Amino acid sequence: MTIASSSPPSRLPLDGATDRGAKPRTGRAKDRENQGDGRLAAVFLAPALLGFTVFLLWPTLRGVYLSFTRFNLLTPAEWVGLDNYTRMVHDPIFWNSLKVTVQYVVINIGVQTVAALAIAVLLQRLTQSAVLRGIVLTPYLMSNVVAGLVWLWILDTQLGIGNEIVVALGADRVPFLADETWAVPTIALINVWRHVGYTALLLFAGLQAIPNDMYEAARVDGASEWRMFWRITMPLLRPVLAVVLIMTVIGSFQVFDTVAVTTAGGPANATNVLQYYIYGSAFGRFQFGYASAMSVALLVVLSAITVLQYRLTRAGRTDLG
């Protein structure tokens, strides 16, 4: 006769129990655990919130307040209401600076985006060498001031190697940074040279998220590289490209240091971009109230452009399922 051995029934863990024999946690214990996590999160967030408040939020609020005052650092701020904004609307130099800035942004963003996209696609489709990525990023590691000075020497009308090459090709010397026609495009291309590698790597990171299966299936169907670029790469890269465009447009509107070390706003205000005019008004003529008003106007313009770009490019949506 065989005796069937009976094993005790296995116990299912109760809600909140993590191990056999562990007591389920009560609601009060969970509340204490969540409260502890909240305190830990607050500790980690505190430095970032402090930095944001001290270096971003407070200066912004202070600048908005000063835009309604007459302030020169030597006397207390005097409330003048909308006088600074009225002056700004009737200031021809302000509108010329805004026009010059827009011209710079159009050239810089147009050339930089096309060049960065081409470099990113070549890196992704032909080679993914870390050495080449480092070479592409090298100009971005140089500060804007150093890049501006180097190109100022290269493009010097009399002694620059750039004009020596132009003469060797049989053309006349070109005053790249001393002529009203050439100055803004030259400054824009200098900044394209410096930033295009960084922008290309951002787009390259976006390309890495596109599944290779899509390209393989397209090749099986006989699609060419050009057709795959427009049918696969561009639609799936759109969210990343939109964010990159928003970042580069905001950065382009804030151009200052390259202008300061190459042309100082000249010749004849041809490169007097808005940031340089704001700087001159504040620290050259000590009109901090008027400079703050122009800064607030620039903030409003950039906010409107960012919202418009975000909506038109549908940056918050992706076609990847």
Can you give keywords for this protein?
mainly alpha, 321 residues, two-stranded antiparallel sheet, flat
Helical segment count:
12
In terms of quaternary structure, what is this? Answer: single chain
Fraction of residues in H or I helices: 55-70%
| H/E element order | HEEHHHHHHHHHHH
Q: How do the strands and helices of this protein lay out in sequence?
A:
Elements (H helix, E strand, L loop, with lengths): L26 H40 L2 E2 L7 E2 L3 H7 L2 H34 L4 H8 L6 H11 L6 H8 L14 H26 L3 H9 L4 H29 L3 H6 L11 H11 L3 H26 L8
Antiparallel strand pairs: 1-2
Helix pairs in contact: 1-12, 2-12, 3-7, 3-9, 4-7, 5-7, 7-9, 9-12, 11-12
Explain this structure:
Strands 1-2 form a two-stranded antiparallel ribbon. The radius of gyration is 29 Å and the shape is flat. 67% of the residues lie in helices and 1% in strands. The chain has twelve helices and two strands. By secondary structure, the chain is an all-alpha fold. α5 packs across α7 and α11 (274-284) packs antiparallel against α12 (288-313). The model is unreliable at 1-10 and 14-18 (pLDDT under 50). It starts with 26 loop residues before the first helix and ends in an 8-residue tail after the last helix. The protein has helices spanning 27-66, 83-89, 92-125, 130-137, 144-154, 161-168, 183-208, 212-220, 225-253, 257-262, 274-284, 288-313; strands at 69-70, 78-79.
